Write a sequence for this structure.
């Protein structure tokens, strides 16, 4: 498990994740320290920064995968944020590109990710799978396997 207090990757005082990326998923977990550990084991995320408060909860964390950042924290009354309900589907999903989705899928399955949609090739040119994490957040991971003209995608979508 990630050590509490502050874990931070080397960087200049000016450079932060908001300087490298424009949109950030920000997830709320009931048990954020455990989530950080599990997201690393199951999905390959690396903690860039973890700021903990004295009671052990996480005030802020930034985790990265292939240079892209996801942020999270514990449920903190001060910010009126709420964790996902265990066992319930999220109303949003984090969609993440990875280099080898087959290996990523095997890793997630071996760590107990709740597979919603198994690994499969999609007509829009992606190979992807969908999974729930340990607190019910919905994730999808993909890699592009072929280029498909938009008109072809539109035609296929009309058949759904």
């Amino acid at each position: 498990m990630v050590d509490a207090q502050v874990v931070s990757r080397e960087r200049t005082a000016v450079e932060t994740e908001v300087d490298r990326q424009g949109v950030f998923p920000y997830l709320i977990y009931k048990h954020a320290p455990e989530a950080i550990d599990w997201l690393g084991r199951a999905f390959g995320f690396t903690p860039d920064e973890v700021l903990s408060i004295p009671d052990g909860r996480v005030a802020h964390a930034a985790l990265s995968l292939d240079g892209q950042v996801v942020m999270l924290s514990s449920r903190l009354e001060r910010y009126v944020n709420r964790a996902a309900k265990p066992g319930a589907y999220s109303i949003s999903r984090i969609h993440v590109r990875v280099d080898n989705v087959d290996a990523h899928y095997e890793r997630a399955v071996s760590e107990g990710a709740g597979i919603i949609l198994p690994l499969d090739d999609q007509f829009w040119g992606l190979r992807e799978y969908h999974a729930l994490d340990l607190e019910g957040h919905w994730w999808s991971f993909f890699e592009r396997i072929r280029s498909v003209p938009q008109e072809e995608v539109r035609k296929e979508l009309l058949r759904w």
About this structure: The two ends are 43 Å apart (CA to CA). Residues 1-6 have pLDDT under 50 and may be disordered.
